[in-house]
Structure formats: structure tokens, C-alpha cells
Specification:
The chain is an alpha/beta fold. The chain has ten helices and 20 strands. The strands form five sheets. Strands 3, 5, 6, 7, 11, 12, 19 and 20 form an eight-stranded mixed β-sheet that branches. The protein has a six-stranded parallel β-sheet with strand order 15-14-13-16-17-18, sandwiched between helices. Strands 1-2 form a two-stranded antiparallel sheet. Helix 5 links the parallel strand 14 and strand 15. The structure holds zinc ion (2 copies).
Length: 363
């Protein structure tokens, strides 16, 4: 069974191991594709803590090989059986901590949330399990989401990241104050998977969106997909932004600013791009990546609303499926598939952040 394991030195190695590890009730999934996430890249680049071996991968889907006896399969969108394609909602709550007991409506608050490919350990604690493996055991407690079999190879790995984007947009809109005679405006920093789909989802709500990314290929992709005002960081100086707002937005800065890059300095920048009473949504710095120097005075004087969002909620998967339906006929625009044997190329290209929006490992 082929797998890619990340060791303590953060080096990836290819292994062929014996059999799927079965612990309790659950299903065995033959992984079809596993997406490489920005979070995985941050881990490779040295962010976050790891101890022991890690099989990365929290954005994967596959075909159900076997349902262990007595398993109560929990699927969000209907009944599933052997042979069906499903993706796994990668995180599960503990149901024990004070948040699970008193505030169970937001699963992201759980103090002990286990997530595939990030912190879900085997029983003896020796290895973290994720989707970068040919066959994987999914314990019963994890929710599944059924994937249309007609979708092109690899597209369904995007369900997880797109649902994260959907949730971040929904939360920002909840706090954004409507203003007279104009539709909402937003700036999205970073046009990687998260930023791209945040932009796409904002456009669906009629929000006027500016996208910023240093990579031309990412700006071009955003442009082709309806985010028509795209700029590099170099172009988007403070003077340029002031003029842009005067020409396009009646002199008012953005209602919402999304940080989807994952760099603390960019978060500090976002404060200067929001209007008075504007919303800042921090969604990129999922892992600790350093501190930023900000002026609390700006937050106070501008009455800024600073929000954070992490992971998705199960409901966002339904909306993510609708968004991805539009990419069924142009999946190459958003995904790039690599056979598992070519994992080095897949990771290197993802690290360069120039090629596909989502690089997948295909088993
Ligand atoms: Zn991810
Ligand atoms: Zn909990």
C-alpha cells in the first residue's frame, strides 16, 4: 500500500506498507485523490509543530471498499454503500471538553478536535494519519460527504478547502454593515485556493472584489473566473489604493478585507485597507507563523471588526458542492493531478505556488 510519510526532519518519503490499519467500527476507503493544502506546505516549510511520523492529507476522497460490521455510517448527504465515492469531513470533536458541552454549535471551538493529516494519531500515538495513502481506515465518528461519481478525477479534493472559503465569507457578511446605495466591496489578499474561492463566493453575493497576489498565473486565473480587478502587491501601493477607491468605490475603502495568504505582515496590512467600520477576516494564518506589528489605535479609531475563521462547518459542504459544479467542465482550471509516484514534483510545484490551484496526489 503506497503512502508518503513526513518524518521529524520534515522530509517526505515514499513507502509501501502492508495493510490498512483498522481500529474499531468504521469504513475502509480506497483513496482516489488527496489534495496538497497550503497548510501542508506551511508544515513542510517548518511552521507548526510535528512529532513523530505524519501522513499528511486532510482533503481526500475515495471509494468505499468495506464497511466494518456494526458501523453506523454518518453521511451528510444521503445513504452510502460499498463502491460509493465519499470525502471525509477531516475534523471530529471530542464531545467532552467545556466547549463541546456548553457551546456545541460551533465544532471549531472544541479543545481537542482531531483532524486527519494534522493531529489524528494512531492508538499507540506513533503516527499521524492522513489521506496521502492508498487505503485508509475512517473511524465511525467521522462524517462523510457523498461525491458525485460523474465529477472529473480529483475535483472533489476541493470540497474541503472550498467549504472553508464558504464559511469565512458567510461569517464576514454576517458582520459587514450595509451602506446606502451601494453593493459591498472586498479585497482578498492571496489568490491561492482559499483566496480564489473566497473571491468567487463573494462575487455570487454581488460583492465587488479586488484580488491581490504576487503571482501572475494566479491573478490571471482569478481574472478568467470573474475576479476582474486583480493586482500585484507592488501595484497596490497606498497611493494607488486611494485613487482606486476614489475612482471606483466613491472614495470609501473596502467593506471587507480577507487575509488568505498566511503571512502576519499581510494581516497588519489589511487594517489599512478596510473602511471605517469595516470587517477584517483572518483566514490564512491557520498555523503559527510569527507575529505582526499592528496599531491598536487604527482598530479603535476606525471601529474595525476583526474576525477569524478556521476550518469549515459540515453545512458549508453543500454550498461547496454547488460552487464546484461549475468547474466540472473546466476542472483543469482549478486542479492539477499527479500520480503518487510523482509526489516530489507535485509538492515542489505546489511549493512554487505557480501551477495548479490545487495539486492532487492520485492513487
Ligand atoms: Zn486544507
Ligand atoms: Zn471538545
Amino acid at each position: 500500500m503506497r503512502t508518503i510519510v513526513l518524518n521529524n526532519e520534515r522530509k517526505l518519503n515514499f513507502f509501501d506498507i502492508d495493510s490498512a490499519h483498522v481500529e474499531e467500527k468504521g469504513i475502509i476507503l480506497s483513496v482516489i485523490a488527496s489534495g496538497i493544502c497550503g497548510t501542508d506546505l506551511h508544515i513542510l516549510e517548518g511552521k507548526g509543530e510535528i512529532c513523530g511520523d505524519v501522513i499528511l492529507g486532510h482533503e481526500f476522497y475515495g471509494s468505499i471498499d468495506k464497511i466494518e460490521e456494526g458501523t453506523q455510517v454518518q453521511c451528510l448527504n444521503g445513504h452510502v454503500e460499498v463502491g460509493d465515492f465519499v470525502t471525509v469531513i477531516p475534523g471530529v470533536v471530542c464531545n467532552k471538553c467545556v466547549y463541546c458541552r456548553d457551546l456545541p454549535l460551533n465544532e471549531n471551538y472544541c479543545l481537542n478536535r482531531s483532524v486527519f493529516g494534522l493531529n489524528l494519531r494512531s492508538k499507540n500515538g506513533s503516527i499521524v494519519f492522513g489521506g496521502n495513502i492508498e487505503k485508509i481506515f475512517i473511524p465511525e465518528k467521522f462524517y462523510l460527504y457523498k461525491v458525485p461519481k460523474s465529477w472529473p478525477l480529483g475535483l472533489a479534493t476541493l470540497l474541503e478547502p472550498v467549504s472553508v472559503a464558504v464559511k469565512a465569507v458567510r461569517k464576514a457578511l454576517k458582520y459587514a454593515e450595509t451602506t446606502k446605495h451601494r453593493s459591498f466591496t472586498a479585497i482578498v489578499f492571496g489568490l491561492g485556493t482559499l483566496g480564489f474561492f473566497i473571491g468567487i463566493e463573494l462575487r455570487k453575493y454581488g460583492v465587488r472584489v479586488v484580488g491581490i497576489d504576487s503571482e501572475k498565473s494566479r491573478r490571471d486565473r482569478a481574472y478568467r473566473n470573474g475576479i476582474t480587478d486583480v493586482f500585484s502587491y507592488k501595484e497596490m501601493t497606498k497611493e494607488f489604493y486611494k485613487k482606486y477607491c476614489q475612482n471606483r468605490w466613491n472614495g470609501i475603502k473596502a467593506d471587507m478585507v480577507f487575509e488568505a495568504v498566511g503571512k502576519p505582515d499581510i494581516f497588519a496590512d489589511t487594517l489599512h485597507f478596510a473602511r471605517k467600520g469595516g470587517v477584517i477576516m483572518e483566514v490564512g494564518n491557520f498555523l503559527f507563523s510569527g507575529n505582526a506589528e499592528i496599531s491598536p489605535n487604527l482598530i479603535c479609531n476606525y471601529e474595525l471588526i476583526i474576525l477569524g475563521s478556521v476550518l469549515a462547518d459540515p453545512n458549508s459542504y453543500f454550498r461547496a458542492e454547488e460552487i464546484l459544479e461549475e468547474y466540472v467542465d473546466k476542472s483543469s482550471e482549478v486542479i492539477c493531478n499527479y500520480k503518487i509516484e510523482h509526489y516530489k514534483e507535485a509538492f515542489n510545484s505546489a511549493l512554487a505556488r505557480t501551477e495548479g490551484l490545487k495539486n492532487n496526489l492520485i492513487f
